[in-house]
Amino acid sequence: MTLSYHLQIVNLLAALLLLISFAMLSQRRIAGLITLFAWQGAALTASTALVAWSTDQHHLYYSAAITLVLKVIAMPWYFSRLMKKLDVNRVVEPMINIPTTMLIGIVLVIFSFNLALPISELSGTVTRSTLGIAMACVLLAFLMMITRTKAIPQVIGFLAMENGLFFAATSATYGMPLVVELGVALDVLVGVFVLGIFIFQIRETFDSLDLKHMEKLKEK
Amino acid sequence: MQTGILLQLAQSLLAILLAPLLMGWVNQCRAWLQGRSAPPITQPYRTLRKLFHKDAVIAHHTSPLFRFAPYMIFACMALAAGIVPTIANDLPFSPAADVIALVGIFALARVFLALAAMDSGTSFGTLGARREMLISFLAEPALLMVFFTASLISQSTELPVIVETLSHHEFAIYPSLAFAAVAFWMISVAENARIPVDNPTTHLELTMIHEAMILEYSARHLALIEWAVALKLFTYSALGIALFLPWGIAAQGDIGALPLALAAMVLKFAIGGAALSFIEAISAKVRLFRAPEFLGTAFMLAVLGMLTHFLLEV
Fold first, then answer.
1. Exposed (0-12), middle (13-18) or buried (19+): which is A86, by Cβ within 10 Å?
2. Which of A31, B30, B43, B154 lies at a C-alpha separation of 20 to 30 Å from B270?
3. CA B268/CA B274 separation, integer angstroms
């Protein structure tokens, strides 16, 4: 092990991201989910800033700042307000029980670690070994979106997936160009607000946030 | 060699004598955090003395196993406490058992406890024994996985080598150990019958796990079991320290480092006990049927630790 200390800390933060992804997968309460999402954003901010500092990539500082403002402060605040306003049933019951979800999660982690191995050989960055973790985060968030039936956890799953993609970009290529990143950040922000309005509409129509009811909309 | 044996004796005695003190410290911290006035830190010693002075009452239908089990459990825990390094590393006892055999020693004690609980034939004892087996069959593989993660780093399942690798080589951050540490905390909570898996102070038989098994015991037998429980908590804390925070444990034959090692040990145990009681104070006991989920999460974290080791640290 000859990595310098800040890279070891980046590795540790990557592991923390994975841990938080699993915690989100096992979390039943929406409030807990929002807190975990904020923590994931915080870990992402810290690791991005650290990569920026250790490799002198100044544009990554801006990415870190955007992450901090959007994903640690703005969105968790918006979600908790939304949750209070909607007064939703705060316990989420997943479609598959949680231990099974966890086992599927482990399989996904093994899959993505193996998948990332040849890709990270091609990459020239110092943080390439964390690519597998980033992919695992994406897949785990995807799994969370699939197994949850309520609207807010699904939106959080979508955002966690974006976190994973962002981390993948940082670890494989030191982040995307700033213009792209700004565009993505804006997209996500607008997307969340649109989804927020959408959630209100779902509740207006069905008196519930359970997306199972939307199957009624199918034409016979 | 002679100093080694002396040190080994000293360490074993220290573990056996200090274990109730750790229990007292945890209880005291928890009482403070819950806003109650705390019992003195020496309360477990007083309880033990009181129990040793009483006359034992034993049910008529029990077999000799019932009398024998407390001694066996205490002996297992004392042996385990002697093997885990607390102040000095690589003592003569240590090669007796590596981490895998250590899991076996814990299992042996558990088998005797469960058999003794079923021996008297009361429904609560059987219920407790079955629940204990449910918890432990899930906790044991997770514990082994934690040990495997630690031994992947040091390439050995011997505790002295693990301690040596982590504390006396060049410092490095191991993300896999972070996973293993969280998993180990969850396992030790379950194994030591603490909140959120079991409540050690409960008086409601239907929710008991550990307490239900020892309902039939009294006097010196109960004292030995209580002492063994304190020793188990001590041994698990010592294991956690040896695996994840081994700095300060004296290297082999380094007599001069012993006072510092002793001070470091006391400090680490004090902080560890306070942290345990803090976590107990902020969490609620989970339903029994959620306990497999809790331990499944621990197992998963330990497996993740191994996976991250292969990804990030090779």
1. middle
2. B154
3. 10
Which residues of chain A does B172 touch, with a Cβ-Cβ cutoff of 8 Å?
1, 8
Distance (Å, whole) CA B286 – CA B279: 14
| Cβ count within 10 A of residue A116 | 24
Cis peptide before B196 (omega within 30 of 0): yes
Q: Is the CB of residue B243 less than 8 Å from the CB of residue B174?
A: no
Look up residue A50 and give its amino acid: L
- Which DSSP state fits B177? H
Enter the ipTM: 0.76
Taking the CA of residue B312 and the nearest CA in chain A, the distance in Å comes to: 6
Cβ of A106 within 8 Å of Cβ of B304? The answer is yes
Residue B303, chain A, CB below 8 Å: the answer is yes
Asked if the Cβ–Cβ distance from A1 to B313 is below 8 Å, we say yes
Residue B172 sits at the chain A interface (C-beta within 8 Å): yes
Burial of B201 (0-12, 13-18, 19+ CB in 10 A): exposed
Residues written for chain A: 220
d(CA B64, CA B53): 22
Contacts of residue A8, defined as CB under 8 A and 6 or more positions apart, other chains included, come to: A1, B172, B173
pLDDT (tens digit per residue) in B8-59: 888 888 889 889 999 999 989 988 888 888 888 888 899 899 999 988 888 8
Give me the sign of the Cα torsion angle A131, A135, A141, A147.
negative
Residues of B in contact with A14 (CB under 8 A): 175, 312
Which amino acid, one-letter code, is at A2? T
Residues in chain B with CB shorter than 8 Å from the CB of A8 are 172-173
Task: Pick out chain B residues at pLDDT < 50.
Answer: none
Residue of A nearest to B313 (CA): A1
